[in-house]
Design goal:
9-stranded mixed β-sheet; 2 domains; 493 residues; binds NADP nicotinamide-adenine-dinucleotide phosphate; Dihydrodipicolinate Reductase, domain 2; alpha/beta; Rossmann fold
């Protein structure tokens, strides 16, 4: 694909996301010769920094991330791309000066505006860019990358969409969900659609239930203000986990094109059975971490963290059960959960198959039982597929045990590519397949809104779980006694 050079304008370039993800991702892309010649990265920040100071800041960001892999000669070349624009993004003059700067011939006319800023400023920035004709695609393309969260609930998401859609088309809008880096999405899609033996089993006739767990051992770092206004349901379930669910359960798309993938994902979201308010308690659970021990270290409770108001009811753990009312999945429960300060940081998708129709081996002299088959997709940190089968134990007795077929996605010498590297490059290529269309965001909010509304008014009690545990006791979500959270890639005995 012929990729043209562009100017990446980063609003909020001195912030956390830019330090930890964006600048290192640009550096790695440059190192891998993936950035088209002439591509520039123009930082917009309110700190009174010179160009030299900005370069030394970026150098520190990248060194922190790359450690001994830092390459002075690559950075020297990379630094030629970097520029700094001092401006307060809430002031109109920031944009008039920016417009002037972008008229300089060194800046390519294809421009991507990356809004790595507070969601409260998204609408205003887009309006100001429009006022200064920076979104007009007369001499090159103009694209706007919007970080999550897109809205705080259904109503605010719709209001934000209404506001920005006056100025940018859907094709110009790149709503990012970094959790859906290319690797993750492609792994799930290849696993499902390149292995023909699985597809006939991928439905309600053979699958008992599906679980998706994203657990983190870290707490809220120094992002207390942000987290407290968000919580686990908005931060992870509404966005990332619902997206993963769509990939695992969607119908085969007609192609791997952005629109075809998007159409199938939306069909799943539309088929999710709405949760009426009276069913919220049966289908959703929230909790907060209490103090505890994580990786042999004593850690504070959520309420003792910095910037968390006394008596906060924000959940650090959220789980829910959903049903997809379509031909393939009707009545198969889908369990999703996420939590902070849990025992281990990992993302796994676990698919539990039904018991065989007849338990031939159940009544044998030694009461050998047959475990259900599981397919486990490890997303992070381990990237792997495990298929668990029941085998006979060697020996004279009729005993069974679980054995697994393991396929690792990555050999030890194969590099992990950060999701942001893929996504930044996709914007350059105009490939929106990993970005969210508004209708996906809207349907996802529709699904969780009744839960959020119910939780918002129930302020008396929020369950807790010890930091370093696998979360609270929320087994009431499960449809059957034999169902329960799977916490490990290997069988739990
Ligand atoms: N951090 C993450 O891991 C993460 C993950 C997913 C999504 N996000 C999303 O990414 C966005 C950025 O998050 P973040 O964690 O990087 O936030 P952050 O650390 O607070 O960074 C925001 C940046 O915006 C700048 N800013 C604020 N007001 C400004 C103004 N009036 N004029 C100019 N600059 C201004 C800040 O400048 P100062 O530096 O001078 O304060 C800061 O550099 C948010 O939408 C967030 O939800 C972040």
């Amino acid at each position: 694909m012929n990729v043209e050079a562009c100017t990446y304008v980063i609003f909020g370039a001195a912030g956390n996301l830019s330090r930890v993800k964006l600048m290192p991702a640009f550096y790695h892309l440059d190192e891998a010769n993936q950035l088209p010649e002439g591509t520039k990265i123009l930082a917009v920040g309110r700190r009174d920094w010179t160009q030299e100071k900005w370069l030394s800041e970026v150098r520190d960001m990248i060194k922190l991330k790359t450690k001994e892999a830092f390459d002075e000669s690559v950075f020297k070349r990379f630094s030629q791309r970097l520029h700094y624009h001092l401006g307060d993004l809430q002031q109109p003059e920031c944009y008039t000066k920016l417009t002037k700067m972008l008229e300089e011939p060194i800046f390519p006319k294809n421009i991507a505006f990356y809004l790595s800023i507070s969601p409260a400023d998204f609408g205003f920035v887009v309006e100001e860019l429009d006022k200064n004709k920076l979104l007009t695609q007369q001499h090159g393309w103009r694209r706007v990358i919007i970080e999550k969260p897109f809205g705080y609930d259904l109503e605010s998401a719709q209001a934000l969409q209404k506001r920005i859609s006056h100025y940018i088309t859907e094709e110009q809008t790149y709503r990012i969900d970094h959790y859906l880096g290319k690797g993750t999405v492609q792994n799930v899609l290849v696993f499902r659609f390149a292995n023909v033996m699985l597809e006939p089993l991928w439905n309600r006739n053979y699958i008992d239930h599906i679980q998706i767990t994203h657990s983190e051992s870290i707490g809220i770092d120094n992002r207390g203000d942000y987290y407290n206004s968000s919580g686990a349901m908005r931060d992870m379930l509404q966005s990332h986990l619902l997206q993963l669910l769509t990939l695992v359960t969607m119908e085969p798309p007609v192609s791997m094109e952005a629109q075809a993938l998007h159409d199938e994902k939306v069909k799943v979201l539309k088929s999710i059975r709405p949760i009426p308010k009276q069913a919220v308690h049966a289908q959703a659970f929230r909790a907060q971490y209490a103090s505890g021990v994580v990786n042999d270290e004593k850690v504070k409770s959520y309420l003792e963290e910095e910037h968390i108001p006394e008596g906060s009811i924000t959940e650090t753990y959220a789980s829910m059960k959903l049903y997809i009312d379509n031909w393939r999945w009707r009545d198969v429960p889908m369990y999703l959960r996420t939590g902070k300060r849990m025992k281990k940081g990992q993302s796994i998708i676990s698919i539990c198959f039904r018991q065989p129709p007849l338990q031939f081996f159940h009544d044998s002299a030694h009461h050998a039982t047959v475990d259900q088959n599981w397919v486990i997709l490890g997303i992070q940190p381990e990237e792997c597929i495990r298929i668990e089968m029941t085998v006979k134990e060697p020996g004279l007795e009729m005993k069974t045990r679980t054995s697994s077929l393991d396929a690792s996605f990555r050999n030890s010498d194969e590099k992990v590519v950060d999701a942001y590297e893929d996504l930044l490059l996709d914007v350059l290529k105009g490939d929106r397949s990993l970005f969210l269309n508004f209708d996906e965001v809207e349907h996802a909010w529709q699904i969780v809104d009744p839960i959020l509304q119910t939780w918002a008014i129930e302020r008396d009690y929020v369950a807790t779980y010890p930091a370093g545990s696998w979360g609270p006791e929320d087994s009431r979500l499960f449809d059957k006694d034999c169902q329960g959270w799977r916490t490990s890639l290997t069988p739990e005995k």
